[in-house]
Amino acid sequence: MAWAFVATAALVGMVTALSYLGGFVNPAGNMRDMPLAIANEDRGVTINGATVNLGDQLVQTLTGPDRPLGASFKWTVLASRQEVLDGLAKDDYYGALVIPSDYSARLAAMSSPATLEGAGAAQLEALTSPASGSISGAESQAAIVGVITQTSKKVQEQVLAAARAANASLSPTAAAVIAEPVRAKLTVAQPVGSKSGRGLAPFYFAVVLTIAGFIGANLVDRAALFITGHEEFDILGRALASPAVALSRQAQWWLRFILTVPMATLTAVLVTVAAVPILGMDTPNAWSLGGFAVASVLTTSLITLLLITALGTPGILAGVLFTTIFGVPSAGGVYPPEMLPGFFQFLGTWLPLRYMTDGARALMFFDGRGSAGLTLALEVLLGYIAGSVLAGWAVAALLDRVRGGQRAEPVTVAPSPP
């Protein structure tokens, strides 16, 4: 039995490495369908009696089958800049590109050396969202700026070719335009504060709540065993024990539940106090974040207690695997889901830490919008809470039926004869 525990500890270490490193070791290689938005407000320009819209051509290039960003990013075409802003405010996109109304007109003015002097550079607006996460925001910004840079190089080649064909001499002003004919205008659409962990604070806050809930559930389990006389505490070499109380497993489950609710509430409040008033973490409404924290701690605690009730001591290991070891790399906290392997994307849709992270992000960075992930997060967490309570009671009732209703007494081993 001792060697079995040694082997189990080693295997848990290996599983932890496969989980954490497997989720994070190759984000660029796993990147697929990162959501970006594009809106074309270009009015077009009339050339030789025909209307030309170069903004539409750029949209078709970026979204077509030979799109320059490949499968790493997925563009959604929207009607206006305002729709882009609304989508970013709901965390639907990690970044966006907006083509302004005079885009075609400015590029058309560069086509002739005679009009190049007063053309001025065209602009493409890159809207960024650090609130979506530091990695997703940085990758999306780099991709959009890269698109603008490549577009500018193509326009530059075309303008230079036209100038050479006309054997035109360029003034310093015209040369400055040709040096960068299309420029990027960066707009931070969803900013984060200086004390937001560069967009990672919601994830780390959710991880703290998960760990606190797991530890709290184990302490509640030990406390329930102690006060009913089924387990002793050894503190500094002194054994503490309580009189034995005969309780069915169903009664034990409800005792744990009664202890868990105030434990989760107090734990969540203190974690929120540590994060917001003491450490100054950015959040517009600490009360709402604290309420969400209560649901998060209660979820992790009840899941852990359910697994302990069903599996006994191995349930502790199952609890840490379910809530943390598999939960952290699949939560979409550091790397967004689109940069995770498919296995962890699948896990993330089922494990609570993904929704705890999304809900905390919506409360901290997106004004508590339900459409930014808060509504779904609350629905999932409340579903886990209700499901864990009912499943825990059902498992306890089943064990009562199978094992006769009383908790097994400790086994007394007779001493060997001399």
In short:
With 418 residues, the protein is α/β, with parallel strands linked by helices.
Explain this structure.
The chain has 418 residues and is of the alpha/beta class. The protein has two domains: 23-188, 3-Layer(aba) Sandwich (abc type-2 transporter like fold), CATH 3.40.1710; 196-403, no CATH class. The protein is built from 16 helices and nine strands. It has helices spanning 2-24, 27-30, 54-63, 81-89, 103-109, 113-116, 134-165, 172-179, 201-227, 249-278, 286-311, 314-325, 327-330, 342-348, 352-365, 374-403, and strands at 34-40, 45-47, 50-52, 73-78, 95-99, 122-128, 182-188, 233-235, 238-240. A five-stranded mixed beta sheet has the order 4-1-5-6-7, sandwiched between helices. It has a two-stranded antiparallel sheet with strand order 2-3. Strand 2 and strand 3 form a beta hairpin. The longest helix has 32 residues, at 134-165.
Supply the key terms.
418 residues; alpha/beta; abc type-2 transporter like fold; two-stranded antiparallel ribbon; 16 helices; 9 strands
Could you say which structural class the secondary elements and strand pairing correspond to? Answer: alpha/beta
Largest sheet: 5 strands, mixed
| End-to-end distance | 25 Å
Provide a count of the helices. 16
Using only C-alpha atoms, the radius of gyration works out to 30 Å
What would the principal axes of the Cα set say about the shape? elongated
Strand order in the sheet with the most strands: 4-1-5-6-7
| Strands, count | 9
The ordered H/E elements are: HHEEEHEHEHHEHHEHEEHHHHHHH
Number of domains: 2
**What is the mean predicted local confidence, pLDDT?**
90
Low-pLDDT segments: 410-414
Strand percentage, roughly? 5-15%
What is the helix fraction of residues, given as a range?
A: 55-70%
